[in-house]
Amino acid sequence: MFAKKETGATRILPTHVAVIMDGNGRWAKKRHLPRTAGHAAGSKNFKDITRYANKIGIKYFTVYAFSTENWKRPAEEVKNIMNILRDYLKDVDNFKDENISMQFIGDLTKLDDDIRELIANAEEKSKNATGMHLNIALNYGGRDEIVHAVKKIAEEKIPIEEIDEQTITDHLYTKGQPDPDFIIRPSGEYRLSNFLIWQSAYAEYWFSDILWPDFKPKHFEKALSSFAGRNRRFGGIK
């Protein structure tokens, strides 16, 4: 968490904001549209909110794009989501002026070869950006991430007595990044859905009934205002 000077006043902003982008399908259903239309609208909104977060000074921004459980959805819907991802990655050059570094977190080995190539290209081209760091969680699951970390620790043969919380943290996909201060979930659901379950131990939460495609900067600001008014004690007394 940090304070940002803004027109003479001190504004309290979280350093790392994470968002569970939820409600695309219900958004489409309410409008008697196919679910594909909801995912397209959600993708556009992701771009808008990411730009806004960068503009106001959020340093780390993580979005839940596709979970390890989302493969259970109908094959046609999954195919559509992956094609939206392809379009975004092919268009990444048009966002180079945003000065945002990109990282994809999750088990990328399950993705098609061309998508992995596009991801590698996007990460490489944005690696020297000095603005916001964007994590896109793709084929991501919090439990799967911890299993992945434990396997890496075992492979490195780290002595048991040397393994502590920092050891786990250093083997997560988010290694080197601060834990999220603030997690936002629109859409009316009140659960983590296997998202950043290690990193979110002391995160603040904000829930809303707004479906993700309708989540606008004014709603983001409302959430940030709520965060700024909270007293974060981390188990101590302040």
Describe this structure in words.
The longest helix has 22 residues, at 35-56. The protein has 238 residues and is an alpha/beta fold. Strand 5 (101-105), helix 4 (113-126) and strand 6 form a beta-alpha-beta unit. A six-stranded parallel beta sheet has the order 5-6-4-3-7-8, sandwiched between helices. A two-stranded antiparallel sheet has the order 1-2. The protein has helices at residues 24-30, 35-56, 75-90, 113-126, 142-155, 165-169, 217-228, and strands spanning 2-6, 9-13, 16-20, 60-67, 101-105, 133-140, 182-185, 204-207. The radius of gyration is 18 Å and the shape is globular.
**Straight-line distance between termini:** 16 Å
- The side-by-side strand order for the widest beta sheet comes to 5-6-4-3-7-8
Shape: globular
Question: How many beta-strand elements?
Answer: 8
Question: What is the alpha-carbon Rg in Å?
Answer: 18 Å
The structure class reads alpha/beta
How confident overall, as mean pLDDT? 93
The CATH architecture is 3-Layer(aba) Sandwich
CATH class annotation = Alpha Beta
Total number of helices: 7
The major β-sheet equals: 6 strands, parallel
Element string (H = helix, E = strand): EEEHHEHEHEHHEEH
Low-confidence stretches: none
Estimate nothing, just give the exact number of structural domains: 1
Q: So, the CATH homologous superfamily?
A: Decaprenyl diphosphate synthase-like
Q: How would you summarize this macromolecular structure in one to three sentences?
A:
With 238 residues, the chain is an alpha/beta fold.
